[in-house]
Amino acid sequence: MFSTALKEGLAIGFGASFGALARFAFTPLIAPEPPAEIIIIFIINFIGCFLMGRFDPGPFWGRGMIGGFTTFSAVSFLAMQTSALHAFMYMAGTMVVGLAAWELGHAFRRSATP
Hints:
There is one protein chain. The chain is an all-alpha fold. The chain is built from 5 helices and no strands. The chain has one domain.
């Protein structure tokens, strides 16, 4: 009845909505003040990248739930509210740490595979 692309798109969309809601609920509990929000978003993105590397999840959990939980758009938004040097350092740091987190998760996955 549904095409494979439509099923995958719906899975990603539903997963992303749950992931974004989880981040939206999680962030103010830990960082009620805006300056601390930068650190929490950084940690959330690290966790998401690590989970993607570790588990190689499918459309719902990966690109959906974890993709919605992480937020590189918030990184950009928060970076725009600071000086150019701080914005560059934060964005570059987020990318480097995100890639390192994915590699670390992927290394755990490889070591767990016989």
